[in-house]
Amino acid sequence: MDKIEAEIRYLCVEANRVLNFIRNINANVGAVGIVPNLSYGLVAISPILPALRNSAFPIFTTKVSSGSAHNNPHIVGNNCLPLELLTADSQPSFVVVDGTRNTGGSGASNNKYPDSQQGFLNYAVAINDVITSGDINSFKGLMGVSSEHVKQLRDNEAYASMKISLEARFRETRPRVPYAFKYWNPAELTLAIYNHGEGCDRSTRAVQGREIYPEMQPTVFFVNSVMPNKYHSAGHNELWGKHEPGFFDDDNKAKEFAFRFDSRGVFIDSGLGDGVHKIYEGLFGGIR
Amino acid sequence: MIQVKPSVEDIRKSLDKRTRVTLVDRLLNVVSNVIEHPITTLLPILAAGSFTLSSWLGVNGYRVDHANKGYELANTKLTQLIESLDSSPDFYVNPPITPAFVTPIVGDMNHSLTNSNSAAGTNAMANIMKFRDSLGKTNATAQTRKELLTLASNQLKPLAEESAPYILFAALAGLVAIVLTIGSGVAIRETSFEDYNRAKKRLSRDYRDFVKILEKRIGEGKISVDTIGYFSQFFSGLNYKKLESRQLNEIIRAFSKNCDDKHSDLLKILATDPRRYTSASAGVFELYDHFDNQDRDNPLKNSLVKSRRDLFLNILVTSPSKNLGAILNAIDLSLNEEKNPDSPDYLESLIKGIREPSQIVRAQYALQRTAAFIPRSVLKNIVNHYLSNKKSPDLLTNDLGLLNVYANTKCNSGEYKSIDELMQFLLDINNFRTAIPDCADFLTSGINGIVSRDPKTFAAIDLALGVFKKNPEYAQYALGFEGLNPNQVKDYLLISDSGFVPTKYLVSKLANSGDKQRELEEWKKVREEISKGQFDPSDLLKRDIEYTNFCKNAKVIGRSVSYKEYQKIFLGVKNG
């Protein structure tokens, strides 16, 4: 078996765990919007795309670049969550999927969530800032951010501009409950984050059990789908060889995105093509 | 009530502790240098350790060597004794023992034991003493005596033959110490140690100089009690926790330089709220002098204010801004009647606190840009509105390219009846550009023909602005729509407001529909059907409704959102 195929198999195992996590939320909380963050996020869910589309999960591709998020605690993702899913009666949770090859490295600094998490966090802060009419105290605990950080964001041009756009969007239908922000990864490790923001103190422990579906609490779950080699099964290691975490993180072929269509309309798929769906089907059965 | 006169002591109380280099500072300096240069600081410590080790080994080596010589002598004498006793077996039964018999041996051993108290030596000594003190004349006693001496001899022999390796190690350690000492010297010469207290030392020196100057001025009667009071009030009110040494130093130097009654009106303002001027205090004096000099060289005529210096003090009091550069520019710009005929309005806006100095500067630059395309009369209205209404939106600050031409045309068209409407229009353009980067590229890229004030292009911008106000994300697509008649524009907006990216097919379908609202509701149902798995690419309506989904995804991956590009997905699919 060549390296690419072996890594696609590992990708399928990780994607399967992500799918179970999404289904867990869906079964206990309700509506979930899936947000693969380009480019790795789409590669990460590519094995489960047919399953997700078949179950009618809304998938919203977005791009918050980790590169521009390095050492920038004030980066704000540009319209990076599917707010069209929000109605006057319901606020879905969101599962943002991303990944990095810096998962399961030798040192603590190599075990982290992708830096893009800060862009999603700050965008969620902007949403909360608008829907609570600026009442920081009502959401800072839910997100692990400080008042100082929110105030600094408010001085940021991109954030201010995002708020104008959100104000316009929520003019007629304004959600009521501020969003929480949590972290998860399939190995359930406590991974590091690089950009906290001044005075911020949030736990990056992977949410577990009841934490995943607190009552009436819409949440943005930030997922790093990558698993270090030692968290994959020894049997798979023996059959497929050693796994390189986030193998497709910088793979150009995987990022040659293509538009396809199926019975649910037009969608965008990773460059790994249809083969990845077949491998997933071989490992975990048909579209489940 | 007794009034206590402010004195230099009050200032000392505020500054003395904050400027002193304490023992902790000095220790931290050493620690920081050790951390910074570990090898350079480790070498002398290792050299000192090696010297100590060498000395210790040397002293011990000498003592052991000395002791061993004593054991050697004792062993020689003991061997002679054994030999003489061995010459006749009777000697062991009835030996001629007297204390003098073993005294020379015991003397040598005592000497050795004093220098090197070895266990073997002590045991040998004990056996010799047992031999000396043994009584009885039986064969058994004789045998015991013989054994005691043999045992003592065996114990002494290795001691006597032992050389002292200490001397060798002492020499080696000494050599290492010399090498390390030389190495330390070189390392110390080559290393530039940092004085982390340099800033504080300078601060301390400047503070003392400041106090001396102050005392001298007081002695000469050149400074009033009021001024000293302002100094005292200022320094006791500073927020020292937020001040770096460098900043405090700048403030102290500035105060040293301006330690006179001439600046007492400025000092009075600074003393009222020292925390506000913490970071700006040093430059305040320079600005004060700058405006004071300008007043002397160029007295103001026909101005709302008679003195720039007073205006400056006035702004310091009324404006919360600490941006001295902006204050400088704002005053210069506002008083420059030659370049700026509206200067009295700026000045009034500044004095009344309607506009901040930084806003005045921004507005000046913004208006310089817009002056090229907005008629003078309109511009004057805009300026007046801006300067007299605190809530008026900020003026256009971007280089807007096509949008400038567009704005010019709109400003001249008389379409906006009130200045409020016009200001809102300009604000919308500003937000439009900021919120939609792609749109900004389109508008500033200098597309061929845009400067020709092509009405079709302007109509597209009109449309995009209309969409933007309700649905910012969809505004971008509207820029591609040119040549729509007013009814089609209405249909376009209806489609966009319903959450669909309009296509030519959709606009035309809605135009031909008898009941537009019902038609749009139908489309929403079709969208639902698609999400439930009933997408049919050969159905044109379904296909164009799905275009919205394509646009969102294409935008994210940086692909073209053109309809032509969208069609490529369905190559080979026949239209129904």
Structure, described:
The complex is a heterodimer of chains A (288) and B (576). Chain A is α/β, with parallel strands linked by helices and 288 residues long. Chain A has one domain (3-284). Helix content of chain A is 34%, strand content 11%. In chain A, strands 1-2-4-3 form a four-stranded parallel beta sheet, sandwiched between helices. In chain A, helix 1 (3-28) packs across helix 10 and helix 5 crosses helix 8 (157-169). Chain A starts with a helix and ends with a helix. Chain B is mainly alpha-helical and 576 residues long. Chain B has helices spanning 8-19, 23-36, 38-86, 90-93, 99-115, 119-133, 139-161, 165-190, 198-220, 225-237, 245-257, 264-272, 281-297, 308-318, 324-334, 343-351, 357-370, 376-388, 402-413, 419-435, 437-444, 455-470, 475-478, 486-497, 504-511, 516-531, 540-545, 547-556, 563-567.
Question: Strands, helices and their partners?
Answer:
The complex is a heterodimer of chains A (288) and B (576).
Chain A: H1 3-28, E1 32-36, H2 40-45, H3 49-54, H4 66-69, E2 93-98, H5 117-131, H6 140-143, H7 147-154, H8 157-169, E3 180-184, E4 219-224, H9 234-240, E5 258-262, E6 265-269, H10 275-284
Parallel strand pairs in A: 1-2, 2-4, 3-4
Antiparallel strand pairs in A: 5-6
Helix pairs in contact in A: 1-10, 5-8
Chain B: H1 8-19, H2 23-36, H3 38-86, H4 90-93, H5 99-115, H6 119-133, H7 139-161, H8 165-190, H9 198-220, H10 225-237, H11 245-257, H12 264-272, H13 281-297, H14 308-318, H15 324-334, H16 343-351, H17 357-370, H18 376-388, H19 402-413, H20 419-435, H21 437-444, H22 455-470, H23 475-478, H24 486-497, H25 504-511, H26 516-531, H27 540-545, H28 547-556, H29 563-567
Helix pairs in contact in B: 1-9, 1-10, 2-3, 3-5, 3-7, 3-8, 5-6, 6-7, 9-11, 10-12, 11-13, 13-14, 15-16, 15-17, 20-21, 22-24, 24-25
Features:
heterodimer; A: 288 residues; alpha/beta; two-stranded antiparallel sheet; 10 helices; 6 strands; B: 576 residues; mainly alpha; Four Helix Bundle (Hemerythrin (Met), subunit A); 5 domains; 29 helices; 71% helix
